[in-house]
Amino acid sequence: MLIGGKWLNRIGALAIIFGMIFFYKYAVDHDWINETMQVCLGYLVAGLFAWMGIRTHKKGLPIFAQGILGTAIAVSYTTSFAAYEFYHLIPTLVGFALMSVVTIGAFWIGFRYSSIAIALLGWFGGFVTPLLIHSDHGSTIGLFSYLGALTIGVLILVYRRPSWWILQSLSFGAVHLMLLIWVSDKPYGEERALHVALACLYGLIFVSFEYLMDRVKKWKIAMM
């Protein structure tokens, strides 16, 4: 009876979720919910998925929990982007900040629950954010300060999870791709010196990290 009760509970929960989805679609189609309410509901749904993911993980279902938590992150990204791009409810700076908070949350969840898939989702969202949310008068210093902070955050994550080295490689490529995209929008010769300086700076960050990892590895071997 206990097992049957658990399954009935899960079926009931799924029925409620699907019912909410269909009700939401029906309400939007019939203009019952305005744009602000849609954004609020988006964050509410993301929070609900996050809560469900944490509870599921505590019940000993880590793989299923990671899928639910990943959905929460994806919904948060989508909601933040929609609030900025489609509904124009928030300014550029707020939209950028919200996307950045989601990225930090994705990294933390990925680290907390040992999920490289969620960390990769955060990595993708972090590097795509400047392409999705920007203005015609964006700050060059602000953009590359953000990329620098994001890169350092990724490297710290790799330091704590050495098996996630793929994040380091992807970040190296993404940073220099962003540099190329940025410089391609400039007239020939304009700010090229800055481009070279930034490329060298980011290269130095990655080289320094490799040196640090090598020293830590040797220190651990020496301590054995």
TrEMBL record:
Pfam families in the cross-refs: DUF2339
Transmembrane segments: 7-24, 36-54, 61-83, 89-109, 116-133, 139-158, 165-183, 195-213
UniProt keyword terms in alphabetical order: Membrane, Transmembrane, Transmembrane helix
Protein's UniProt keywords contain Membrane: yes
Keyword ATP-binding listed: no
Protein name listed in UniProt: Membrane protein
Organism: Croceifilum oryzae
